[in-house]
């Protein structure tokens, strides 16, 4: 330490004659600055206004490492900025702090006064004989220092005045930096909230598991990190890569190879999956792996692994690769994103399982095939209006009894397990009765009695038609209806008419009576049966498919009209609303139309 000598007089003029006004100016500039380093020129200019000062320098340390060194000498017009270094010991380490700003008067040949490399001896080279230094915390783990060098050994008043001014500057810079950090954090939170909101919308936009995972990876790069990998666990707990994304297309190819088959990565993924908040690897933690120092591809400074867990089930991992040391700061975001992604994946998985179960149950409620009947051509089709819903109640079947053919179609009110149970009851009851030769009206009456006996909470509609061949090549058709949409007859000449068969819903009135009406089908004629999902399909203008049903029937019973599949296809193209399933059965007499 140098004992104070004679004072170095300050010349008259700003800012030393108006120090309070200058501090206020520094404060106002700092309120609009995006970084305190933008105030360097203003600070150095003010301090160099003292004629006893030959050089002013500053430095900053971010999380213990030097980020830059700046200095300006008397007569210089610009501040010289030198990049920092990675050294954490010796002259490059951050100087210690006292309870407040540290004020030191030191000689130029004292190594304690030297700037962090690569600034080195800049103070001595600028002709400083003594230096006053102020070290202060900027906030968020950063530290800064200011050096003011005098051309000769100063006196105590100058040292006291310079130290006080450095302390005041440090206070302004610290408060300004805190405001900047708060503003940046606020903007970052807003950006992350917007990102997470968009992520939720995107993740909710697909019920396909793999598409959901691809969306996770695509959204996260580059919004969160430069690279992303998503792994899913199978029933044995083995993790498999299902989605990979990287900002660099050439790096993405290698990243996929690493994600699919790298022992080091597999080990770290398992470690991360076992931790509630995952893990972050940096520096030495990455050595020996595909992202360590010297590894091919873009440099990786950090890797985070977040577990994908939903409803207490471990689903996999979400991994990010960073070219910056920000993974720890992003941990709340990573946890939130991983939770949302896991919930979306779990929902997609459960939906897929449910969809398969619904399909299996629906198949059991429909016949495996239609019988062959000489002289008749049969076609049937079934379409689920919304595969995110439960099993529907539409059913149909056909039974051949001798030379006759019995066809029926029906619909149980509602969806779900209860509807499926009544669907099975109705179909199998009608099939058994018709196999035993029961008439159409008798079969409906018996089914109505069975539903009443079961105290059915759902009503059922059904329509039964029995076709009997005649010697002249025509077929007599007896049709009985229980609240079902009317069937249509499409004549070979192109005319389409509804069959006026009416009757009470099944399962509502105990003593309901049903009667059959008769129609005749000639060569090329067709009988078309359908559920209400066909007629109730609705277009954007509010019109119903029922209004154009006769024309659609006429087209679809032609040789190239597609039959039952063609009729359902026309309704599907017409529909913009309507969530009821649709079943269609067409029985056509063979012959020229």
Automatic annotation (TrEMBL):
Lineage summary: Bacteria, Bacillati, Actinomycetota, Actinomycetes, Kitasatosporales
UniProt keyword terms in alphabetical order: Hydrolase
PANTHER family: STAGE II SPORULATION PROTEIN E, STAGE II SPORULATION PROTEIN E-RELATED
Gene Ontology MF annotations: phosphatase activity
Entry keyword Phosphoprotein: no
InterPro entries named in the record: Bact_Sigma-Reg, GAF, GAF-like_dom_sf, PPM-type-like_dom_sf, PPM-type_phosphatase-like_dom
Residue ranges of every copy of the PPM-type phosphatase domain listed in the record: 376-589
Keyword NAD: no
The protein, known as: Stage II sporulation protein E
Taxonomic source organism: Streptomyces albidoflavus
Pfam families from the UniProt entry: GAF, SpoIIE
């Amino acid at each position: 330490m140098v004992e104070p000598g004679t004072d170095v007089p300050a010349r008259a003029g700003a800012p030393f004659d108006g120090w309070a006004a200058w501090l206020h100016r520094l404060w106002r500039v700092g309120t609009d600055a995006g970084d305190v380093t933008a105030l360097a020129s203003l600070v150095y200019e003010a301090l160099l206004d003292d004629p006893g000062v030959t050089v002013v320098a500053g430095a900053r340390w971010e999380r213990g490492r030097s980020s830059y060194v700046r200095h300006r000498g008397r007569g210089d017009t610009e501040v010289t900025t030198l990049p920092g270094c990675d050294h954490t010991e010796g002259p490059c380490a951050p100087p210690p702090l006292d309870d407040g700003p540290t004020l030191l008067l030191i000689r130029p040949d004292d190594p304690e006064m030297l700037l962090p490399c690569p600034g080195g001896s800049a103070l001595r080279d600028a002709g400083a004989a003594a230096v006053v230094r102020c070290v202060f915390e900027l906030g968020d783990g950063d530290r800064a220092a200011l050096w003011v060098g005098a051309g000769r050994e100063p006196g105590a008043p100058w040292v006291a005045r310079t130290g006080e001014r450095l302390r005041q500057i440090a206070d302004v810079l610290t408060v300004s930096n805190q405001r900047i950090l708060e503003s940046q954090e606020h903007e970052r939170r807003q950006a992350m909230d917007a990102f997470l909101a968009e992520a939720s919308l995107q993740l909710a936009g697909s019920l396909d598991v793999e598409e959901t995972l691809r969306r996770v990876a695509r959204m996260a790069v580059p919004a969160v990190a430069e690279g992303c990998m998503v792994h899913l666990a199978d029933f044995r707990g083995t993790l498999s890569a299902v989605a990979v994304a990287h900002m660099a297309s050439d790096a993405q190819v290698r990243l996929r190879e690493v994600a699919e088959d790298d022992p080091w990565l597999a080990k770290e993924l398992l470690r991360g999956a076992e931790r509630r908040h995952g893990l972050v690897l940096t520096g030495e933690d990455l050595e020996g792996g595909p992202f360590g120092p010297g590894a091919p591809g873009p440099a990786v400074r950090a890797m985070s692994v977040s577990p994908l867990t939903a409803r207490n089930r471990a689903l996999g991992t979400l991994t990010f690769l960073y070219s910056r040391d920000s993974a720890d700061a992003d941990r709340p975001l990573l946890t939130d994103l991983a939770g949302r992604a896991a919930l979306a994946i779990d929902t997609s998985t459960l939906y897929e399982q449910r969809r398969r179960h619904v399909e299996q149950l629906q198949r059991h409620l429909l016949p495996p095939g239609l019988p062959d009947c000489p002289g008749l051509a049969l076609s049937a089709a079934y379409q689920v209006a919304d595969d995110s819903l439960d099993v529907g109640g539409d059913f149909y079947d056909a039974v051949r009894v001798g030379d006759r053919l019995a066809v029926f179609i029906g619909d149980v009110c509602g969806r779900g397990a209860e509807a499926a149970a009544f669907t099975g009851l109705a179909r199998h009851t009608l099939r058994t009765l018709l196999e035993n030769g029961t008439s159409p009206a008798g079969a409906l009456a018996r089914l109505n009695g069975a539903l009443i006996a079961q105290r059915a909470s759902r009503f059922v509609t059904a329509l039964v038609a029995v076709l009997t061949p005649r010697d002249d090549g025509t077929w007599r058709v007896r049709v009985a209806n229980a609240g079902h949409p009317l069937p249509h007859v499409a004549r070979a000449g192109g005319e389409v008419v509804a069959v006026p068969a009416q009757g009470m819903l099944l399962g509502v009135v105990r003593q309901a009576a049903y009667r059959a009406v008769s129609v005749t089908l000639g060569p090329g004629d067709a009988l078309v049966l359908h559920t209400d999902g066909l007629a109730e399909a609705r277009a954007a203008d509010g019109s119903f498919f029922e209004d154009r049903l006769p024309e659609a029937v006429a087209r679809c019973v032609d040789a190239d009209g597609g039959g039952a599949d063609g009729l359902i296809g026309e309704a599907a193209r017409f529909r913009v609303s309507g969530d009821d399933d649709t079943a269609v059965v067409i029985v056509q007499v063979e012959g020229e139309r």
